[in-house]
Design goal:
Blueprint: E1 2-6, H1 13-22, E2 26-31, H2 34-43, E3 46-49, H3 55-63, E4 67-70, H4 80-98, E5 104-110, H5 132-143, E6 150-156, E7 159-161, H6 169-180, E8 183-185, E9 192-197, H7 198-211, E10 216-219, E11 223-227, H8 228-239, E12 243-245, H9 255-258, H10 267-273, H11 282-287
Parallel strand pairs: 1-2, 1-4, 2-3, 4-5, 5-6, 6-10, 7-9, 8-12
Antiparallel strand pairs: 9-11
Helix pairs in contact: 1-7, 3-4, 4-5, 6-8
Length: 293
Amino acid sequence: MRVFVTGATGGIGSAVVPELLTAGHEVLGLARSEASAQALIGAGAAVLRGDLADPDSLSAGAAQADGVIHLAFGNDFDAFERCVAEETLAVATIGAALEGSGKPLVIASGTPAAAGRASTEQDQMPVDGPVGGRGRNAQAVLGLAAAGVRSSVVRLPRSVHAAGGPYGFASLLIAAAQRTGVSGYVGDGSQRWPAVHRLDAARLFRLALESAAPGTVAHAVADEGDTMRSIAEVIGRRLGLPVEAVPAESFGFLGTIFGVDQPSSSAATRATFDWQPVHPSLLDDLETGGFPG
């Protein structure tokens, strides 16, 4: 299968591309810069120059492919609405290019929170509040199943990680600790965050591309929930810093999200795709230290 991948050189895309190539697929990666283009060529992928703000490049990539994995997202929390708007345009553009083709479209989203329990694949993403835009985009992709697209959403947990980084949300805790001299957590730190190693996540994206039924939601969750305090304790120990409760606003835009208990299950995903995470846990990867400066 020839697969068009956006975000192909990002933290997750750089794992998805070799996963696809090793499985015998061809990859056409979207590259915004010459450095990204060279990284894709070095990995053995073909290159299409463009970005999320260039609908023509997205349409061209989808038209040349047998399937699409959309991973690109700005992750600029100071301009989050703009990043969501870019994703909205990208989803609409790629969806229109694939409509009626029966080709697969897999996009990344996030696991939701469910009060008092681990969220499941059947739970809806929030469409209001700080991250509501991403939930609406995911729903739009699932809706493409009725328009002849084999669409699916792979929901990623709060920390998609690998030893040495990046660590997802845990990277924000590391950066805050390095900046303030305190490894902080919100509230009593008992709130739980799910996690997955990026290589396990990459394998699930490939499996969804190959076999997901139209309208499928999958959870790329290995660790159902590590407490925020346990994450902060590892970070503090590795950096030699005190571990303390800090105000939610210390983490800016994400502070209110950090205080929510949000474990997540992947039981249905494991059964559907015969997917079993095999790589180290978040806490094990954090224990290796060597955090980015």
